[in-house]
Structure formats: structure tokens, C-alpha cells
Amino acid sequence: MNIKIIIAIHKPYWVPEDPVYLPLHVGREGKPAIGFAGDNTGDNISGRNATFCELTGLYWAWKNLQADYVGLVHYRRYFTKREVHNVAARKKQILCGKDWDALLAGTPVVVADKRNYYIESNRSHYNHAHPSEGLDVTEAIIGELYPDYMDAFHLVMERSWAHMFNMLVMRRDLFDAYCQWLFSVLFELEKRLDITSFDAYNQRVFGFVGERLLDVWLEHNKIPYKEQNVSFLEKQNWLVKGGLFLKRKFWGR
After folding, report:
1. Tens-place pLDDT, residues 173-216
2. Which of 15, 51, 120, 238 has the fewest beta carbons under 10 Å from its own?
3. Separation of alpha carbons 188 and 178, rounded Å
4. For helices 172-192 and 133-145, what crossing angle results, to 10°?
5. What value, to the nearest 5°, has the Cα angle with vertex 53 and ends 215 and 26?
């Protein structure tokens, strides 16, 4: 089984040595080299990294990688066997090649464990964190280009959980189908959405919207998947993160 999982990375950082992983410098176009392969070779959208985030890496993998299974993780965020509290120990929990062989033998798609919002829907959570036009225009595009996806779109937007981070590993035929659909929607969104008034953070809108579209595609196509634990390789201040969540919820961006 040929599995290749890109690690979206933009600065020098530790990466696992297992050959299943390919560190990929996303947004490499016009930037100094950092010692990893860049997403600015072959068919690519590297120059749009400021607005597409790690999805420039996903696009590169779609157009340039040959593998039976293709996936994406982040340089600080990986699929792991289980969660542990020690940051250094989390590195030992990262799934290796033999783990992926066993896991993918039983499922065609792996996604991140659900992120639960409890008091928010996916749509309200997005709108409290970002300009609502991102999802509003996306909804209109799907209604025009893929009207049969509308039921799935509304279902996913009303849920209080999602599979986030644009992290996934997919069998090649499904990966190709997903990327074709995803980028057709996002490129149309790019044409229609005026982001000149957005701050630098919210100009990453196409990456943020892409996170929400994964579940829409899975739901509509009834694709079986397995959820897998995800670990962050740095300490997180959950008190601060929780405070920011509540601030967005009750006082907006």
C-alpha cells in the first residue's frame, strides 16, 4: 500500500522521519527555502497560500503526488494513537507507516476526531469568528453548481460538531473526487467574494470555508470514514482559548 501524507509546514520545525510523511513547504512561491520540498512546483496554487492556507498543499498533492492513499496533516498537528499530556510524548503517538497500513485496510477515509461546539452550530460558530459572507456566498455557489448537495450543506451547517483542520487521509479515487469538487467551489468563491476589507486573518477565508466543506462532501456522498485522535505538538492555553470562544459567541468578532 503506497501512502503519502503531506505535512503542511512554513518554517523550520521538527518532522517525523517515517517515509509515509512528506514535509511540504506551503506558500513556498516567492519565499526563502527552509529545507523542504515546496508547493510551487508542477501544477500548483502556491502563490495563493495567504488566502487558501494549507489547501495550497492539498492542491499540490492532488495534482503532483502518485500514491494509493493521499493525506494532509500540519507541522504541529498530527493523527495520533491516543492523547497524552506530555508534549514530547505526543511525538511517539504519531501514526507511523505500519499503523496507517492497518488503519486504511479497514476504511477508505480517515478524518480528525469531532470538534464539538455544544452551544454553537457550525454556521453560527463560523459567523461569530469570521465575516458571514464566506459561507453565504458558498451556499449560493453550491446551490447553483451542485444543487443536490444543498441538503447536506444545510445539515452540516446546523450540526454542533465538525471534522476540522482540513486534515484527512483518503483512498486515491475518493481524494481525486473530493479535491475536484472542493476546488471547483473555492475557485468560484474566490471570483465572487470581495475580501479587500477583510483583515489578514480573515483573508484566509478559503481555507476556513474548506474546513466546513469536507463534512458536506462526506455527508452527501455517504462516504464511510473513521475518526482518529489528533494531537497538537505545543502547549495550549485552554483558558485563553475558551475565553476567546465565549467572546466571539456573545460579543462577535
Report:
1. 999 999 999 999 999 999 999 999 999 999 999 999 999 999 99
2. 238
3. 16
4. 120
5. 120
Does pTM top 0.90 for this prediction? yes
Written as nine digits, the cell of 141 is 455557489
* pLDDT averaged over every residue in the chain: 94
What is the Cα–Cα distance from 41 to 74, expressed in whole angstroms? 20
Contacts of 200 by beta carbon, 8 Å cutoff, 6+ apart:
50
Phi, psi of 69 (to 5 degrees): -135, 140
Give dist(CA 111, CA 175) in Å, integer.
12
Helix (H, G, I), strand (E, B) or coil at 115: strand
Selection from 188, 179, 135 nearest residue 158 by Cα = 135
**182: how many CB neighbours lie within 10 A of its CB?**
22
Distance CA 67, CA 148 (A): 30
- For residues 190 and 51, is the Cβ–Cβ distance under 8 A? yes
Please say if the pLDDT value at position 238 is more than 90.
no
